[in-house]
Structures are given as C-alpha cells and as structure tokens.
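Fig. S4 source data, part A: sequence.
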Amino acid sequence: ITIGGSLVGGTRGNTGSIGAGQLGPVTIGHDLIHKIVGTSDLASSGKISGDTIKSITIGGSIISEVDNTGGSSRISNIVLQSTNDIGSITVKGDITGDASSPVIIMARGQKTPGATSDVAIGNVNVSGRVDETQILVGYNALMQPVNADAQIGSVNVGGDWIASSLVAGAKNSQIVSNGQGGFIRLNNVNFGDASDAKISGTGTMDNPNLISKIASIVIKGQILGTADSVSTTDHFGFVAEQIGFLQIGNYPRVLHPGSGNDHFALGPTGDVAVDEIP
C-alpha cells in the first residue's frame, strides 16, 4: 500500500486507517495523524494494523492529536499494531504523542516462534525525536500482556527520547483491565520502576529456551522524562530480560553480559531507567 500524502484519522472510529490480515510494505509519503476527539473513544482513527506487517515507512511524522475532552477507554491511542509481528518501522520525522494519550506501537510476536528467537518488531528507525510514545512487544490485539519471549531488533533514534518507554516481554502492575478483556491504562502505566515484571499468567507464551530481548538501542540525542513540576509519579524505561547494546549520544553504555543484570537510571530528570527483569 502506498499513499503519497498523509494518512489522517477523522472524528469517527475506523477512519483514516489501514487494516488487513497480512500487509506487505506500507508507505505513507507524509504524516500519519492519529486523532482522539470529543467524548468518543475512536478505536481506529488514524491507525495501521494487521496480523503480520512486512514494513511500515512514514515519510513525515507520526502525530497523536488529542482533544482533551476525550473519552475514557483510550483504546484509540494504539497507532501501529500487529497481532503477530512487524518487520520494520521507519519514520523520517518525529513520533509525538500526548501526555494523556501517547502513541502506542504494539506487536505480540512471531506466529511460529523460532528455536532461539521470537522477534515481534525487527527494527525501528526514527530520524527525529520520540516523544510521549510507548513501544510494547509481547501484547495481543486486546492489549493483554501474553508473550514473555517477545523480542525487538535494533532501535535507532536520531533525536531525543522524551517521556517514552521501550518494552519487550514485560508488564507492569499498574496495567488495569477494562473488564472486557482489554487493558485500558497503558497510557498511564509507568515502566522502568520496581513494578516491572516478566509477562506471566494463564495462557502466557514462555519458552524456557527463549528470553525477551532488545538487541540494540542507539539514541543520538538526550534521554528525558518529565520535570517534577510536571509529574513526580510518572516513570519510563527500557525494559526486557536482556538489552544487547545501548548508546546515548556518542557514548556507549557498559552493560553486563547475560540477562537480568542491568538496572540504572538515565538522563537528568531521574524518572527514566534501564531495567533488565529477572
């Protein structure tokens, strides 16, 4: 699918969206604009989704536009979603969400995992900044954490990483069910704190030969959360059982070999952390 201009959500659900069982390469020439408007919960207003997605290329930015008279479910803040996996995501501009409803990018994992890998998102490349965004793998279409083995390949960001989380195979105790099988408060959930845990529970995929991984993270700009004047309770993280490589600016960070060995804060705001879960 190729759109020369922008893909723009409307003021009703299922507008400005692309969805199919299997999607080959999807290319949007300019922006992908996701909308939450009025008192409606727009489940698919400005969204790309599929069972498997070969690749997504956005020539401009991914932008979440929120009218804060919005509804309660916030299911609508999922902007990119795969029931299984996404081969690659390329954004030539920025990814910018809203504090009340960040951009959520979500994938569960391979339909048939390999013996040594279960890559839910192959790689992510963003030329600009990532702001108010959550990239979560190991979650199904109902936003339930179901795959403890989910993995992400390389993540490269040309600008700053702001008030955002990157999570593989992990959940947080703050995730709250909507009572209808879905989990609705992913926009308010902290990551990178003491409530992080490996995904577990009835029906969870957890192969003892696999661990959740983020192969590499390169952020060319700064790592920032929010100032205390904005919030003293929020928290953001890079979370998996193992993170293979981490570079902030021009400086690689020393990581211990193996899984579950690295836990440290990043950036000047004190509310962003690397958390390798046991």
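Fig. S4 source data, part B ends here. The radius of gyration is 17 Å.
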